[in-house]
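I hope you will forgive my troubling you with a question about protein structure. The matter concerns a single protein, recorded as an amino acid sequence and a row of backbone structure tokens. Please examine both parts with care and let me know of anything in them that strikes you as inconsistent. Thank you for your consideration; the sequence and its tokens are set out here:
***
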Amino acid sequence: MFSLSDETRKKVNRLIDAMQSNLVELYDIMNELRSHLGGIPLSDEENSAIFSEVKAKKGTAQPYDPVTKPAASESKQPSSDHAKTESSFSESVESESEKAVGETNLNEARVSRVLDPIAFEVENANSPAEVVAEYVQSAKDELITPQKPNNKVSQDMDIVLKFLRARGTKPINPDERENILRRIKRWHAYLVSS
């Protein structure tokens, strides 16, 4: 194996951090794009091309019986209207659930984009506590807003901030590091679920 100098190792770590942050941001943008594309209705040509084979199989699957055909068509008329109503209802429910899933994915990507670099910094770097405190404060400012208040996370972030500011320029001990990482995971879970 080859060894890297400390300066090169730091540069590589910074590049990895930047790449990770950019990948999370790219994921966020792709989810947003997917949600926008999900809102665009398919044209009739695309619908028919996708489902034409299925319709052909349905038509050939039922045998033709000339005696029962008129009675079946009479009974199908009301159920056809019912099927249309059920179909439109299920489509509206599906579109609402897709929107909710899209919003959840966007929220999760946003929370990950903010908290993942902090977790990485706490886990892998020997940064002074005051530097990590700056990261946590900026995360709190971005994630806890009047539009999206979360008192549990806000209070827990305040506890971590108070601790980190008290440590000042000292690095974070391994036990403290594990405690902060557990808290960050908890913040992530609460913020994504709210």
Remarks:
- Residues 130 and 165 are 6 Å apart (CA to CA).
